[in-house]
Amino acid sequence: MDPGFPPLRRTSPLFTRKPLEAFLAQAEEGHRLRRVLGPFQLTALGIGAVIGAGIFVATGAAARSVAGPALMLSYAVAGLTCVFAALCYAEFAAMVPVAGSAYAYAYATLGELFAWIIGWDLILEYGVASAAVATGWSAYAQDVLAQVGLPVPLLLGESPWRYDPALGQLVATGSLFNLPAVLAVAAVTAVLVRGIRESSFLNAAMVAIKLAAILFVIGVGAFFVVRTNWEPFAPFGWTGIRFFGHTVAGQVDAGGQPVGMLAGAAIIFFAYIGFDAVSTHAEEARNPQRDVPLGIVVSLAVCSVLYIAMVAVLTGMVRFDQLDVSAPVSLAFRMRGLGWAEGIIAAAGVAGISSVLLVMMLSGPRVFMAMARDGLLPREVFGAVHPRFRTPWRSTLVTGACVAVMAGLLPIDYLLHLTNIGTLLAFVIVCCAVLVMRRTHPAAHRPFRCPLVPLVPVLGILSCLLLMFSLPGSNWVRLGVWLVLGLAVYAFYGRHHSLLRQNAASR
Question: What is the second-level CATH architecture of the domain 33-506?
Answer without folding.
Answer: Up-down Bundle (1.20)
